[in-house]
Request: fold
Amino acid sequence: MKVTEVSDKPFDRLTRIGNRMILLMESDEESEPTDKAVIFLDSEEYSGIMVAGYEAMDEAIADIFVHLRAMFQASGKDLKLIVVPDQSEKYN
Reply:
């Protein structure tokens, strides 16, 4: 998947929908200041991701992997990740 735009503000149909979902979460009577969200939206044409409540994107990425692993385990599988240093300059 090619990253076409990164922004702090919604910029297309899917990110506007995701933004409304986050606003709804934040305004809910049961919402707490420590609540966090990662919302994935996908259409046949493009995708959107909205993140809220995280100090750094690395924290959101780590939580995504934790949840992905739980989803795999719930279906009787497992997910292992290996972090590999960026070697792109080495091959250019």
